[in-house]
Amino acid sequence: MRKVFIVFLLLFVSIKADDLSSNSNTYFNFINIFYDGKSSALGKYSNANYGDYTNFLNNPALLINAENSIVSNFSKILSDIYVGQISYLGKIKEYKYSTSIGYLNYGSIEGRDVNGEPTGDLSASDMMVNFSISHSLNRFLDFGLGVNFLYSSIDNSSCSGLGFNFGVIYRSSTKGNFAFSVTNVGFTLSKITENDEAKLPSKFIVGWSKELAHLPVITSLSLSKKVEDDYFIHGGLIFKFMPSFFVRLGYFASLEDDISFVASEATNKHGLTFGFNLMNIKKFDFDFSYVPFAHIGTISTFSLKYKF
Asked: What structural domains does the chain harbor?
């Protein structure tokens, strides 16, 4: 029975990661738990904070503020399930770009039939490869484009897909930054079964961010909608205690659920997030975020950036 439970948990995490949807026709939900250590602390999703350029999976336009760097993200979901991502950020003339690869490995377990006889090891994994680019149209408006190659496998079955990302940011010196982004709009390249009406986990985010005039605080507010899921509100504050030390607090909630500040163990409909940033330690930045994750518990993400 314990083996059966573990296999079920593998399937649950792989196909329904981040509580994206209860509809099994949505593939590649794992893409929504490739968090970075900054933006995820602002209520899980944001897309308008100009300094969070490592958040290019949610808005590729943010890359316009990027520095030449290598960024690695590492997230812990369970005691033996981890998410890793490494990205290279660079510049070609007036264009900023990033190349990134992410991997989620569930390990392997011993498979057995109903009679308890060994049937071989079972394994599961997910992979994402991204390329994003951004450009400034003028001193107020930035845009970005990205493409994701997605691959998921469990035991001897696999599927793949191609998703496209688009984002814009309008910058106002008095009213803050306004952003709109759409991610993972695309199609499947291969399916687990030919009869699947598979969909990619498309998502849009409308966001706003502003640094307060007389306080060392940056505000963030976003509205998101994923395919076949609720509308969510995401809010956060960045407290700039020192030029090299920021603390982040955030909250997310479904607009179709009761508002609560206690994370639900049954669903991922609301919860408080937290994080901090240590910057400019020689050529390194270190970020951490904490995001509740329903039955699983929490996702703790660590990010390390090297600037050159």
From this structure: 2-307 (2.40.160.60)
